[in-house]
Structures are given as C-alpha cells and as structure tokens.
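During the reporting period the student researcher (J.K.) took over the structure-prediction task from the postdoctoral fellow and processed the backlog of single-chain submissions. One of the processed entries is reproduced below for the supervisory committee.
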Amino acid sequence: MDRPRKYHKNRRLPKNFYNYFDICTMEGISKNRAKNAVKEKKVEGIKDLPELEPIEHLFEVFEKPVKNGIVNSYGILRRYYDDWKATAEVPAPPPGRPPKEGYVWFKVRIPEHIKEDFQTVVDNANAMSAVHVTYSDMAAVAFSEFVQRRPEFMDLDED
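J.K. obtained the following structure tokens:
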C-alpha cells in the first residue's frame, strides 16, 4: 500500500473503530492466534492472518499511555470493515485533498486580533471587487509584500 499507516499518539480507540481483538472474534480467529500474530511484529503481524490479510493496511495504531509505559491498540474504521463484509471488496480510503503544484503548506501561529483584522480586510476587499480572493491567496500576497519590502535581507553574504 502506498499510504503510510496512521499512528495516533495519546489517543484511545474511538467509538467509530472496531478493536483488533473484536474483529478476530467476529472472524472466528482464536484469541491465542490473534495475540501471537501481533506479539512480535505488532500491527504488521495482522497480514499473517489470512482472514484479515486483505484489509490489514486499513488498521490504525492508537498509542495510549498507562502507568508502566505505552500500550498499543489496533483498530479499523467500522465503515471499512462493514463495507468489506457486505461487498467482499476492500474499501479504498479517500485520497484527501490533492496538493497544488508549486505550493507548500506554511503554518504559522498568529494572535487572534491579527487574524480578525486580516479577515475583515479581505472580506471588505472582496465586497468591493468583482474578483474574489481567498484568505490563503491573500496571505500569500502578504508574505510576498513582506519579502519585497526587505530586499536588503535577500542576499546576505556570510563573510
């Protein structure tokens, strides 16, 4: 599978997930066999069970802290398992939003009043203009203007 397995740190198994051992019980896999499959290889051991091999890539890992360390729980979304049982076809997870070519994510934390002022300016500009721009497009313009106003910092020679 070309998608990496999801690991959730400090989270319990949510209610919309089936637990690995519950799935094994539903599939008629004995508890000892289920434990042995994940004993050494952890979540990767699920693929050694022929009953679960088609959907093993859909299992996610939930690491929850306990007194003496961290315990891993393995789960699969209920709708993935239910769809698989109903149709006998392995469900495909949604691909998510495709990345735009030539763009990168640049996440910053700013004070709330600056965000509100920025949104007000963009909303007012959009109200006056026939062409509307998004907040992210206007943030790119703001970053660009910031760089253009400081050309002396663009080419610093480290001597």
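The committee noted the following: DSSP finds five helices and four strands in the chain.
J.K. will present the remaining backlog at the next meeting.
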